[in-house]
Give the backbone structure.
Amino acid sequence: MSLREEILDVSKELLLKYGFSKMSMRKIAKKADVTATSIYLHFKNKDDLLLALVEESIANLNRELRNALDKSASPIEQLESLADAYVDYALKNPQEYEIIYMVRPEEMPKYPKEKFQQVREIYELLAGIIQRGKVQQLFDVEDPLVSAYTLWAQLHGVVSVILGKRLDTRVSKDRFLKLATDQIIQGFIIQKTPA
């Protein structure tokens, strides 16, 4: 593991433990067993370090979603695959997921405009699939981009219940995840009325 990767790993842990405002370069250096000067060789400042964490986490999520996408599958199957990949990524990488979506906005440095494209790619990917499903008369949606954000918000809620340890103990985690994602996808599909 390179020094940069080690600094990022330690920073993830400290960010989630203390929050951005209480995370310091000195704490990171101590935990990584390096000098603070070593950190500045890789990152200009604490804001630069946090943005690198966010960017890396988004890139990893984006890669997982794209790897799960079978371009020959139907839009319904593609949404199902992406929903499963999204939930799977979040549960296997809770620190990265929390850095993307759960770090409080007031703690975030201003995200450079040129970096927003990477964030938007996930929504545009979903919107493109939803648009194809709409054209094929599979999905009942008005605005594919709004629907992409709606899909993300619902999946984020499901994931947050698990990561926040808020699931009722009487409910099986696996069953909850399966039924919740199935119901979210079903909400987009045009329901055929029996003849």
